Amino acid sequence: MSDTLQVKAGVRALPDVTPGLSQGELIDAYGTHSRAVRSVAARTCGPAQADDVVQEVFFRLWQEPGRFDPAKGSLRGYLLGIGRNCAVDVVRSNQARLRREQRVVAVQATPAPSVVDLVEGLDVAERVCAALALLPDAERLAITMAFFGGLSYRATAVRLNVPEGTTKSRIRVGLRRLAQLLDDDDAPPTGTADPPLVPTTGTALDPPT
Predict the structure, then answer these.
(1) Which residues, including other chains, have CB under 8 Å from residue 35's CB and lie 6 or more apart?
(2) Which of 3-12, 73-82, 92-101, 115-124 has the lowest mean pLDDT?
(3) Does the predicted model carry a pTM greater than 0.70?
(4) Based on the domain organization, do 59 and 134 belong to the same domain?
(5) CA angle at residue 205 from 203 to 208, to 5 degrees?
(6) How far is residue 179's CA from residue 120's CA, in Å, rounded to a whole number?
(7) Domain that includes residue 17, residue range
(8) Does residue 89 come out as left (phi exceeding 0), alpha (psi in the -120 to 50 range) or beta?
């Protein structure tokens, strides 16, 4: 089926009355300019999607013919401009879809945490909670609201009914205490060194000379 016959078939499905544009005018415009619109679209978004762009361009012409102003230029230039814009939209849509697909693939390729990782994560969480419990109430509340509750410094200050500077100071001091508590927890115990296996010189265990 030729391009003109295809557009005639499509036009017959449209309402009998179109605002400012007759079916004959639409058919003439398609027959005169569709190849040029398709060429512009193919250079931008590729031949595979150029036909979709052509269809969109002439649908817009039929839907809103009043947007074309002969005083500003020719109908050909107007249609080619719409075609370029539509083709750019297609490229952007394709790129956005590709990024979404890449994110999905990346998530699917990420290995699930092992049992060891989960256990270690739980252990760290328990140690942090235990250390938080040792902080002064004011520091613990400020840190809990800001870091675990997701509140900003200002929102935390409002909740605690204290100045924002006081809140920042409490959080800063509390984090230092928390880090020190966690460091102390990691330090090896003292006073448990094994006794030497070899007696030292000059003890009662030395053999007689």
Answers:
(1) 3
(2) 3-12
(3) no
(4) no
(5) 95
(6) 18
(7) 3-109
(8) alpha
